[in-house]
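Support request from a user on the community tier.

User writes: "When I paste my structure tokens into the form, the page sometimes reloads and wipes my input. The last time it worked, I copied everything first. Here is what I submitted, just in case something in the input itself triggers the reload:"
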């Protein structure tokens, strides 16, 4: 398994996962509606976010990578290059999601581990990772990746308490 830049090669399993994300109410992880007809353009758009091209208003540059295993799309990780006030409070540097049919196989723990290597490669030396207070799986993932708990803060936007962790790279 590895992290790659978004690629047309994984179109089938990616679109399958996106439908499942939408069905569980997680469509918001995908800033652009997925354009099936011009998937190559969609992938290029995601890649452009790394250098700030085409980002929605108020979003910081972010690197979006896909975890793939053999010929299957497994999940997404986003690494934001710096923090705004809101990201510092509750959003954090890193977000990740695993395709519903691939969960509970260790991929969530692995995607964060691989993402931390990428963050180090960009020159980051510590990252903030947050998760909902009741997200048991994500708490385990962050703590297994040496997250040091700082505190909880309330997200007005998401209307939930977020646990905030720092990870030294
Ligand atoms: C959170 C998420 C990434 C976990 O992915 P995953 O691939 O299932 O994670 P792992 O397989 O590495 O599991 C890590 C631990 O969490 C546990 N776990 C996984 N899903 C769980 C759930 N729904 N409830 C309770 N524990 C769960 C696993 O059993 C494992 O613990 P164990 O080793 O003690 O058994 C995935 O559920 C997801 O994409 N959720 C929606 C988006 C999200 O919440 N992203 C995180 C934002 S911070």
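"...and here is what came back when it finally went through:"
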């Amino acid at each position: 398994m590895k992290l790659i830049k978004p690629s047309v090669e994984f179109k089938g399993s990616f679109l399958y996962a996106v439908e499942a994300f939408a069905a569980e109410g997680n469509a918001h992880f995908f800033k652009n509606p997925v354009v099936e007809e011009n998937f190559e353009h969609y992938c290029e758009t995601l890649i452009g976010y790394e250098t700030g091209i085409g980002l929605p208003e108020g979003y910081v540059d972010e690197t979006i990578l896909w975890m793939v295993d053999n010929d299957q799309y497994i999940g997404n990780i986003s690494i934001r290059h710096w923090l705004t006030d809101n990201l510092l409070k509750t959003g954090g540097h890193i977000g990740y999601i695993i395709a519903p049919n691939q969960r509970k196989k260790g991929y969530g723990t692995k995607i964060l581990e691989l993402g931390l290597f990428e963050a180090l490669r960009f020159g980051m030396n510590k990252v903030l990772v947050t998760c909902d207070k009741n997200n048991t799986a994500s708490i385990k993932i962050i703590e297994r990746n040496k997250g040091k708990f700082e505190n909880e803060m309330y997200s007005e936007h998401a209307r939930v308490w977020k646990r905030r962790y720092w990870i030294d790279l």
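Agent notes: The reload is a front-end session timeout and is unrelated to the input. The radius of gyration is 15 Å. Residues 2-125 form a domain with the Aminopeptidase fold (CATH 3.40.630.30). Escalated to web team.
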